[in-house]
Design brief:
- There is one protein chain.
- This protein is mainly β.
- It has a 10-stranded antiparallel β-barrel with strand order 1-3-4-7-8-9-10-11-12-13. A two-stranded antiparallel ribbon has the order 5-6.
- The protein has helices at 5-17, 67-71; strands at residues 37-54, 65-66, 79-88, 92-108, 113-115, 118-120, 125-146, 149-172, 175-200, 205-218, 221-237, 240-257, 260-278.
- It has 2 helices and 13 strands; from the N terminus they run αββαβββββββββββ.
- Helices cover 6% and strands 69% of the residues.
- The chain starts with a helix and ends with a strand.
Length: 279
């Protein structure tokens, strides 16, 4: 898997954030470390990169198609996203995350595109789209804490739904085949290990960092997943505040299931601006 410079920077920030910062005067502790529940609601502004391939009966290895480049999809996006946290017992936490993204566009092809042994030829007007949904659940135990910071490790699962489609006048084995719509879709529960760190500078300010990682073969899927974030939160009112974080989600898997043998490489990387509630 090829990591971007920003991915490496984010992982470095995560590791650095788990090191205790210099002691500072404290006038309280941020609610992220004291309240039972927390909820972040806001907008994720990622740069999106989606590359997929499908291997047909004749094509042993399908061509990777960059949907943003080939079909003129927007690379930037703005999608609703949420994070949820539940602290229970003395040392346990349950976390959740959700966001969904989609894109579609119509275009006259500048070159041939092969998809599942079907050719959409140069000069043909086609429409293409892709969809992505992520639901993350993370169960963790606190292993290190003080009044103003905590660090924990845990296990999680990412439920992913992804798909793509192309439609237009097609050619099969050199023979015009009329209008065709070809689509693929997959749903995948991918487990992961992870860690989180929270540091409260005061009752108003808190730093949070987390990192989820998966690299294995699970059922019909084989590949790597990274889901990470680093951000700050400001408590404006007793039970509400706002925050800004830098989020990265990167998925690179081979798919081997009925209806789709191929590869998907999807990256969402950018800022998440949100309002927060703690109670």
């Amino acid at each position: 898997m090829k990591y971007t410079k920003n991915a490496l920077l984010l992982v470095t920030l995560f590791i650095g954030s788990t090191m205790s910062p210099p002691a500072a005067a404290q006038d309280g502790v941020h609610p992220y470390l004291t309240e039972k529940f927390s909820l972040d609601l806001g907008v994720f502004f990622p740069e999106r990169r989606v590359t997929m391939s499908i291997d047909g009966p004749v094509i042993a290895a399908g061509e990777d198609i960059d949907f943003e480049t080939a079909f003129g999809h927007k690379r930037s996006d703005d999608v609703f996203s949420l994070n949820f946290g539940w602290r229970f017992g003395e040392k346990w936490q349950l976390g959740g995350q959700y966001f969904a993204s989609s894109g579609e566009n119509s275009k006259v092809l500048q070159e041939d595109v092969e998809w599942n042994d079907i050719t959409f030829g140069q000069g043909t007007g086609i429409a293409a789209g892709q969809e992505f949904d992520l639901l993350r659940v993370f169960f963790a135990r606190k292993f290190r804490s003080s009044d103003n910071q905590e660090f924990g490790l845990g296990l999680g699962i990412h439920w992913l739904e992804l798909g793509a489609w192309i439609e237009g006048n097609a050619v099969i084995n050199g023979v015009p085949a009329g209008f065709r719509r070809e689509s693929v879709s997959a749903q995948a529960p991918l487990p992961n290990i992870g860690a989180w760190y929270t540091y409260s500078f005061s009752s108003k300010w808190a730093l949070r960092a987390r990192l989820d990682w998966f690299s294995a073969e699970v059922g019909d899927y084989d590949g790597t997943l990274i889901n990470a974030a680093v951000g700050l939160n400001y408590q404006m009112f007793e039970h509400a505040g706002f925050g800004l974080s830098y989020n990265l989600f990167d998925l690179d898997v081979n798919v081997n299931k009925n209806g789709w043998h191929g590869n998907v490489n999807t990256t969402y990387e950018g800022l998440f601006a949100h309002v927060s509630f703690y109670w």
